[in-house]
Every structure is written in structure tokens, then in C-alpha cells.
Design brief:
single chain, alpha/beta, Rossmann fold, six-stranded mixed β-sheet, 7 helices, 10 strands
Length: 224
């Protein structure tokens, strides 16, 4: 395996008036191609901030984040936007689906935003719908789906552009335990069968166990 994403001496500080809060301190990580990594920690530990820095959704105060040896900070806004659309897939706790779009349309939204032809993704859409178990729900809107089904749509949306890396922030945090474990099993299958690198943030030891490696974040520092 080779590294897909790395951090070097990563710090993140927030300033509130005269108060400076160090959220992350000297984070040095290497995540390999094909890994399923769980980042664990209590609320306020900095784990979600770390995930956003890995995905280029936020910028570090100091230090480096590299994707396949290219530093995110030296990219133009356009290059970073293309990187996120084509190489990263994001899954969030609250699904972030568009209420008036159906399942198909929500999944294909990243393709549309990237200016690609929707027709050329029809076969891939069918395959992904089968993978996430929603082949019979393609015309349903989010309000017609359960929470677990909505999260499956979000996972399908993250997969549609065939990303190299999936970043999931508390992917089962809004689900009951049974549904949550079904979603975790799906993510694990995507990692094993499709070879997708997955980094998830969670406070659940049970959810974390679906990954191959656990990284603990406490008080802004990493403990493996």
C-alpha cells in the first residue's frame, strides 16, 4: 500500500475575541490506500475538525495536508474544488439531501455539478443503487425514506464520481443502533469489495470496530 493522505505538524486554532483555542496540536498522520480508518474521540476533541482539514473543507492554522503527495495548501481554489468533486466523497450525519429531488437526482447531483453528461452515468447509477440496496426507491424523495435509507442515498452520492477517498462524519450519529450497524456494514463492504479508502469520525466504539485501524483524538492530539 502507498499513502493516500498525510498530515505533517498540523495545527488548528480558533480565535474568539482575545481567546485562542487550540483545537488540533501537532497532528502527524499517514493513511494508506485501501484502509478503513476510524477516528474516535469525545465531543469537542477535534476529530471532526481533523476530518474537515483532510477533506479540504477547512484550512489549517499551520502544517500540511497532502493528498497523494500534493499539498492542498498550494492548490488554487479551482484545483481544490475539482479535487473534492472528483477524488473525495463526503458523508455527513444529517445526510444533506435536497428535499425536492428524488433518490436518482440526489445521487447524480455531483455529476451535474461537475459538468458531466448524466446519460453516461446511467449504468453506474444502477450499479450503485444495487450496492446500497435502493434499486426499488429511485423515484422516492427524501421525505418518503427512513433515516437509514436517506444515509444510503448519501453514501451512493459519495460513490457516483468513483472517489479515491470517502470521508464520513458521524455517519450513523442520527440513526438507531440496528440501522446504524447496517450502514456500517455497508461502508465496510464498500471498503472491502470496491477498495475504497474510508476515513470515518465516530464516538461509538462499536462503529469504530468496522474499520481496520482506530485513531484516538483527545484534547486535540492523536493517540494510536
Amino acid at each position: 500500500m502507498s499513502p493516500i493522505i498525510e498530515t505533517e505538524k498540523l495545527y488548528k486554532t480558533f480565535t474568539l475575541g482575545e481567546l485562542r483555542i487550540e483545537v488540533l496540536k501537532d497532528i502527524n498522520l499517514v493513511i494508506e490506500e485501501g484502509e478503513f480508518v476510524s477516528i474516535m474521540g469525545p465531543s469537542g476533541s477535534g476529530k471532526s475538525t481533523l476530518l474537515y482539514l483532510l477533506g479540504g473543507l477547512d484550512k489549517p492554522t499551520s502544517g500540511r495536508v497532502r493528498f497523494r503527495n500534493k499539498e492542498l495548501a498550494v492548490m488554487t481554489d479551482r484545483e481544490e474544488s475539482i479535487l473534492r468533486r472528483r477524488h473525495f466523497g463526503f458523508v455527513f450525519q444529517f445526510y444533506n439531501l435536497i428535499p425536492n429531488l428524488n433518490v436518482e437526482e440526489n445521487i447524480l447531483l455531483p455529476v451535474l455539478l461537475d459538468g458531466k453528461r448524466l446519460k453516461s452515468y446511467r449504468d453506474k447509477l444502477d450499479e450503485i443503487l444495487e450496492t446500497v440496496g435502493l434499486a426499488g426507491h429511485r423515484r422516492h424523495t427524501p421525505r418518503e425514506l427512513s433515516g437509514g435509507q436517506q444515509q444510503r442515498v448519501a453514501i451512493a452520492r459519495a460513490l457516483i464520481n468513483d472517489p479515491d477517498l470517502i470521508l464520513a462524519d458521524e455517519p450513523i450519529g442520527n440513526l438507531d443502533s440496528k440501522t446504524g450497524m447496517e450502514v456500517m456494514a455497508l461502508l465496510q463492504r464498500i471498503n472491502l469489495e470496491k477498495g475504497k479508502t474510508i476515513v470515518q469520525v465516530t464516538h461509538s466504539r462499536e462503529a469504530a470496530s468496522y474499520g481496520q485501524r482506530i485513531i484516538n483524538v483527545r484534547d486535540g492530539k492523536v493517540w494510536e
